[in-house]
Every structure is written in C-alpha cells, then in structure tokens.
Amino acid sequence: MRVTGGIFSDEACLAGQIYVDCNGNSVKDREELGIPGVRLYLENGTWIVSDEQGKYSHCGLRPRTHVLKVDARTLPRKSRLVTSSAQNVGDAHSLFIDAKKGMLHRADFIEGSCSATVIEQVKARQAQGANVSVQTEPEQPALKFESKYGAQARPRQQGTDGANQPMARTRH
Predict the structure, then answer these.
(1) Nearest one of 14, 16, 31 to 109, comparing CA atoms
(2) Which fold has domain 14-129?
(3) Where along the chain do its domains lie?
C-alpha cells in the first residue's frame, strides 16, 4: 500500500474566504455575503480568485512563510478591509501564512464597512453565479508588495576600511 498527499505531502494548502462582516464579530455568519471575483496574490506572483461565495483555495505551497495579499483593485468600490487576526500584522489587505508540510491553513479577509454601496456590488457579482470573473474597480490603488528587507536608506558598512582611506600615522 502506498499513501500519498494529505499529512504525508511535502506541500501545504490554504483555504479561505473574503466576506462582508456586518455585525463585526470576525466570523462569517449565514446571512453575511461572500465577495466573488476578488483576486489574491501570493508573494511569488501566483494568484487565485474568490468564487461566487467568496471562497478560494490553493495547494502546492512550499513549507515556509508566505504572504497572501488582496488585490484592492478587485474589491467592490468603497470597501474597507479590517484585520482579522495577528496574521495580518497590522495590514488588513495581507496575511502571513506559516505553511507546514501536509497542513491546510485558513486565511480569511473581512470587509468591515457593510455599506449599502458594497452590499449592492456584492449582490450584483453573486447574481453572475459561476460566471463571476475578476472585476477591477476604477479609482483603486495599484497592488504593491512592500518588504522591510528591501533597499536600505543607508547601506551597511563593511567591517574594514576602504582602500581609498588615508593611512593613519603611527605614534613615535
């Protein structure tokens, strides 16, 4: 007998949903709407799109820390995401995913305004059913990944002086 996949896999999966949380309890209740057609990116450029219920999933993650980021241009106009967990690290548009071999990781995003404008757009997207596609809303900022490990304002200095330094005089 040969067993593969699941907990015996070298890869991980993520699953989640993006939804409108009208009562602010950070849990998707029956009456709350999932947001279809939202594009989410992993740090390597892989992207997934939420289905007609706002759900998404992706398998094949290498066992390490990943970043999942919502493409704000694909959210309904006037949307306001709110942090849902410590995984947001202060940015409601992204989540850190600590992928472990063979594990399924949950990654949810929450729209917290519950405004009539957002609800109307979500219902229009849901009416498209399985034909929902990525929709880019006008006037949304471009997607950006920012890293604290990027270029530093002042590069680190080597432990030795450069060859162009004047020689120090010795004391006699």
Answers:
(1) 16
(2) Immunoglobulin-like (2.60.40)
(3) 14-129
Query: Residues 89, 51: contact at Cβ < 8 Å?
Result: no
CA-CA distance, 164 to 36, in Å (whole number)? 61
d(CA 37, CA 127): 12
* Alpha helices (H) along the chain: 116-127
| DSSP-based three-state secondary structure for 6 | helix
Q: Please write the tens of the pLDDT for every residue from 24-69.
A: 999 999 999 999 999 999 999 999 999 999 999 999 999 999 999 9
pTM of the model: 0.73
Containing 74, the helix (H) or strand (E) segment is: none
Q: Are 41 and 26 in contact (CB under 8 A)?
A: no
Q: State how far the Cα of 25 lies from the Cα of 32, in Å rounded to an integer.
A: 11
Instruction: Write out pLDDT tens, residues 119-150.
Output: 999 999 999 876 665 655 555 444 454 544 44
CA distance 108 to 44: 19
